[in-house]
Amino acid sequence: MVDRIEASPTQTGSQTSGCLTGERVSFTGILASMTHQAASDLVAKYGGTATHNVSRQTTMLVIGEEGWPLEENGHPSQKLLLVTEWNQHGAGIKIVPESDWLRILDLDERRQEVHRLHTPAMLSSVLGLSVSIIRRWERIGLIKPVRKIFRLPYFDFQEVSSARRLTELLNAGIARDEIEQSLTKLQQHLGGIERPLAQLEILARDSHVLCRDDRGLIEPASGQRVFDFVEEPQPTPVVGESALPFAAPEDDDLLSGLQWYQRGCDLLDEDDASSAVEAFRMSLISGHHEPDVYFHLALALYRTGNRMGALERYHCCVEADHTYLEAWTQLGCLYDELGESDQALDAFDVALQTHPDCPEAHFHKADLLARMGNSQEAIPHWQNYLRFDDRGPWAEIARDRLAESAGEASVGHDGAVGPHGDDRHGNHRVDE
Predict the structure, then answer these.
(1) How far apart are CA 136 and CA 269, in angstroms?
(2) How far apart are the first and last CA of the chain?
(3) Segment 228-275, tens digit of pLDDT
(4) Which residue segments constitute the domains of the chain, with CATH numbers given?
(5) Which of 82, 228, 274, 312 would suit a FRET pair with 6, their CA atoms being 20 to 30 Å apart?
């Protein structure tokens, strides 16, 4: 069994200041709350000694809780395997999940960071995943939002980082059975493995990274459709005949508006934006006038280079649902990109009136205000954003901008962070 150590709920900072005295602490896996260097600094602050490697003199091994501590070969981390083996021979090294270690240090705020909920844009920034992949993963059930506020989903960070790590391992050719065995070994240290096993069930088929939706199989990382049957060749359209720019089955006239919408989402996942535009339009023609159709049609139009068309469809979306948060933030970013700063600020303000804790709206409004020369007005929005994210690239920008506003020396960021791609800082924007 794992030696669990708990901090008393009544401990204060002064009481925990020496709580690691005499401890030799090592870390394995990716920490969700801070970098390994910052964690090592904390060990020294609280009286312990941080070591890069484990040895029989190690007294505590802290397991990071971003994703799973699995090596490139799919096995549990070498440090964890060594410590587990030594403990079987009486070493008595404490194996502590990151959350428990933070509790020992009485760092409740950091513990909350480990379990903080993230929007798609925040996850995109922190994990380096495109928002389109996150949306696709939600549609196929690979990740599930903990809650939705005005259609804006909030995800458990650990669930999404788990899906990313499992996808990386399967993409590297690691067999599903091997990953399952490794997860089982980790269960005694990190708790339940039911959800990652369910994610594996979705991701893996015959050792390939495949997900199933109502149309068949799809590779989650690339968005490419994979068919598990031999397709019959499609007839070549006769010149002059009206044809949609994608392969359509013979019973297209029987498709419902919802089915056209789902097809449009699939085509958008496959980076066929032009065909997606036509599918979403067919959905509207079929009477499916849901706000989501307008929203995704706007995304598709933008990807084809039709920014004004996208702008109009975003407006249709918020006319259909005035509280559609992502549409308002997209409108704001698009107006900003078009040089219409006042309209952009208005859109961000509507988003914040609808949901005062909308992280993206705070970030984008602060960024625009700063570029307009209104750094002081931007300060509360930078501060609000940092309430929800203090570790990703966007958080770094927010801290730098706050430092600039305070007159401190910092590295400046002068690029706008818009809605539809990567800016020059490498940040993933609201839609990608």
Answers:
(1) 7
(2) 45
(3) 433 444 443 433 333 444 544 444 556 899 999 999 999 998 889 999
(4) 13-111 (3.40.50.10190), 117-226 (no CATH)
(5) 82
